[in-house]
Amino acid sequence: MNRICLGTHAAAAVSDDFCIVFLRQGARIAALLYGRENGLVSAACGENGRTEYCKQMQGVLTADSSAAQAVFANHAADRFTETDSAMIWTLYDGTEYPMTLCESSDGTQPAGESLAAEMARRNQKAYAYETGEDGICAEIITEHFAAVFLARKDMIYCRLGQNGYCEKGYAMLPGIVLRRNECRMIPDLTVMRQPYHPQEGCFAENGCAFPADGGWYWSVQAVTAEHILLNGCGGDTYLIARS
């Protein structure tokens, strides 16, 4: 069961095996990848427009800097509690971040007749894997939200966004983004409880689009028996498997 919990300054995407957590601490934004069995695995921390990371896998610690290593050491002492309707993330210093359940999904919604309904159902997933010796990637996608944690030496990409589907394609409205030279979080994450509805006229026929509503738009390129193909960023093609 995959769940999304939201608070004013915190958000969590939670699976049976791991969770991706975002926290605002003053001017600092942290993204944490936390395993249910092995605790904190990786942390990305953004401040003043720059993000660094630190991870620990199989006892080996890799960090961009001593500051990133200190952030990891602090958050390794974080703890959380869960109920059916809420989560409380408690920092190493005792600060509590209350969050309430926004969505719970097992990905088994009945298939809809529309392409939009099928994309919303088929796109749901939760996985985590190592990206070589220096990084890790995790993703949790529900019907209405998409959380990503990717941190390695050459790339940091952590975000939480709202999903929106229509017959023209798939759009995602980001509320939190951390990249090497970018770190931002909307002032109040609880506004993400309101559903996101993409505007059909904003989809580009042969590519991605970034219209004024702030969404990232990926139009349908083709539909085959095996996949729904989307026009992704940078000329890439994104796939949603149909089985």
Summarize the structure.
The protein is mainly β.
Structural write-up:
By secondary structure, this protein is mainly beta. The mean pLDDT is about 90. The chain has helices spanning about 65-75, 115-120; strands at about 1-5, 10-15, 20-25, 30-35, 40-45, 50-55, 60-65, 80, 85-90, 95-105, 125-130, 135-140, 145-150, 155-165, 170-180, 180-185, 210, 215-225, 225-230, 235-240. A hairpin with a 2-residue loop joins strand 13 (about 145-150) and strand 14 (about 155-165). The radius of gyration is 18 Å and the shape is globular. It has one domain (about 1-200). The strands form two sheets. Strands 7-6-5-4-3-2-1-10-9-8 form a ten-stranded antiparallel β-sheet, with helices on one face. Strands 11, 12, 13, 14, 15, 16, 17, 18, 19 and 20 form a ten-stranded antiparallel β-sheet that branches. The protein is built from two helices and 20 strands.
Defining key terms:
10-stranded antiparallel sheet; mainly beta; 7% helix; 243 residues
pLDDT < 50 runs, ≥5 residues: none
Gap from first CA to last CA: 19 Å
Cross-sheet strand order for the largest sheet: 7-6-5-4-3-2-1-10-9-8
Note the main sheet: 10 strands, antiparallel
What structural class do helix, strand and pairing data support?
Answer: mainly beta
Topology as H/E string? EEEEEEEHEEEHEEEEEEEEEE
SS element count, helices: 2
Number of domains: 1
Shape designation: globular
User: Helical percent range?
Assistant: under 10%
Quote the beta fraction.
over 45%
Number of strands: 20
Q: Measured on Cα atoms, how large is the radius of gyration?
A: 18 Å
Mean pLDDT: 92
